[in-house]
């Protein structure tokens, strides 16, 4: 089979590989629609995972089942499925402890284009198929359903990590596709005032549509100073970080009220340390909590989020700004994620 791969640092291209083997509990899937992610950019051009060679990229897909193992009960060849970016081993001790995304070790529930080949191939392997695949609901557009693989659950997880409550004032840093879903998640959880940090007009328009009440452009001055001015010096109850660098948390801590929480879902692909400003953290006693988490994966998460789309609670169409047809456009779509032109939110490749 062929796949679009990381050939080495700063190099991508097509390779030929053996078709993956399907274990008794597993499935092989052929993609119907896939999407590149900023994580792929970190992997190839920042070396976030090290110098990987001939590793097929991609972790966002909707596909059609090609083959299932002998012990798979709920799926069969021909079924259309949503595939989460995170595919835990559900019999692991970590999963039993409530942290399935870390099954087998830190971040080890993230397997595609990390520990094994990803979804940008003619076939890809899904472990524990009954626990990690979800049936694509009738009438749900596969292109839109791709947003359920990673963008929606990651953004929503930011709102969960921040523990957004009714009436909270919330700061969302970064309004790319994940940040936009963090805005939507905060609004759905009952936030009152939502500040969204970004500068691209298309993303600002989408953020307002998802529930942002005010926009902060970091080009217009210090982020913290703007937040404090807009809140009359009070700051925010909760914050979700969906963009930025290893220095972003240090910018947000000062605007967080005592007892506030930061939910970080920003993948830090470079840098050595995350710093916490001592005084603004209450000299260690401010009850300001920082939680960073990889999104939960698995079938139940996908089914619940798909239900929100089916019943009109969530519209992901504004996220998809570029649609391409055919595998030959994989590199073009990935380069869009790397270059981030101002008219881009998220590209999808239809196969």
Task: Give your account of this protein's structure.
This protein has 351 residues and is α/β, with parallel strands linked by helices. It has two domains: 2-150 and 295-350, Alpha-Beta Complex (Quinone Oxidoreductase, Chain A, domain 1); 156-292, NAD(P)-binding Rossmann-like Domain (Rossmann fold, 3-Layer(aba) Sandwich). It has helices at residues 38-45, 93-96, 129-132, 142-145, 151-162, 177-188, 201-210, 223-230, 248-252, 299-310, 330-339, and strands spanning 2-8, 11-16, 27-34, 55-56, 61-68, 80-83, 124-126, 134-135, 169-173, 193-197, 214-216, 236-241, 256-264, 289-292, 320-325, 346-350. Strands 3, 5, 6, 7, 8, 15 and 16 form a seven-stranded mixed β-sheet that branches. The mean pLDDT is 96.
Give a quick summary of the entry.
This protein is of the alpha/beta class and 351 residues long. The chain is built from 11 helices and 16 strands.
Q: Work out the helicity level.
A: 25-40%
Q: How many whole angstroms does the radius of gyration measure? A: 20 Å
Gross morphology is: globular
Oligomer: single chain
Strand residue percentage: 15-25%
CATH architecture field of the largest domain: Alpha-Beta Complex
Number of strands: 16
For the termini, the CA-CA separation is 15 Å
By CATH, the superfamily of the largest domain comes out as Medium-chain alcohol dehydrogenases, catalytic domain
**Secondary-structure class:** alpha/beta
**What is the count of helical runs?**
11
Instruction: Give the CATH topology of the largest domain.
Output: Quinone Oxidoreductase, Chain A, domain 1
Mean pLDDT: 96
Give the low-pLDDT segments: none
Written as H for each helix and E for each strand, in order along the chain, the element string is EEEHEEEHEHEHHEHEHEHEHEEHEHE
- Number of separate structural domains: 2
* CATH classification, class level of the largest domain: Alpha Beta
């Amino acid at each position: 089979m062929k796949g679009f791969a990381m050939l080495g640092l700063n190099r991508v291209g097509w390779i030929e590989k053996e078709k993956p083997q399907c274990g008794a509990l597993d499935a092989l899937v052929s993609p119907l629609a896939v999407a590149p992610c900023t994580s792929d950019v970190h992997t190839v051009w920042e070396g976030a995972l090290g110098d990987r060679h001939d590793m097929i990229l991609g972790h966002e897909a909707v596909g059609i089942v090609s083959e299932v193992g002998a012990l798979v009960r709920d799926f069969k060849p021909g079924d259309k499925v949503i595939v989460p970016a995170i595919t835990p081993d559900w019999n692991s001790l970590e999963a039993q402890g409530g942290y399935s995304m870390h099954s087998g070790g830190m971040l080890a529930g993230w397997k595609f284009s990390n520990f094994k080949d990803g979804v940008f191939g003619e076939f890809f392997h899904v472990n524990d198929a009954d626990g990690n695949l979800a049936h694509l609901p009738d009438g749900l557009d596969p292109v839109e359903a791709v947003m359920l693989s990673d963008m929606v659950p990651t953004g929503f997880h930011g709102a969960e990590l921040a523990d957004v409550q009714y009436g909270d004032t919330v700061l969302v840093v970064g309004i790319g596709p994940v940040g936009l879903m963090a805005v939507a998640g905060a609004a759905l959880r009952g936030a009152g005032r939502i500040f969204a940090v970004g500068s691209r007009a298309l993303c600002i328009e989408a953020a307002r549509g998802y529930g942002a009440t005010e926009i902060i452009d970091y080009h217009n001055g210090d982020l913290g100073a703007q937040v404090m001015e807009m809140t009359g010096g009070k700051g925010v109850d909760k914050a979700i970080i969906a963009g930025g660098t290893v220095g972003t948390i240090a910018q947000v801590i000062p605007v967080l009220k005592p007892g506030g929480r930061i939910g970080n879902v920003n993948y830090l692909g470079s840098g050595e340390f995350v710093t916490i400003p001592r005084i603004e953290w209450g000299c260690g006693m401010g009850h300001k909590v920082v939680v960073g988490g990889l999104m939960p994966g698995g079938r139940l998460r996908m089914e619940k989020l798909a239900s929100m789309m089916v019943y009109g609670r969530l519209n992901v169409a504004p996220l998809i700004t570029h649609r391409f047809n055919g595998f030959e456009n994989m590199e073009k779509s990935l380069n869009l994620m790397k270059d981030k032109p101002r008219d881009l939110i998220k590209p999808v490749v239809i196969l």
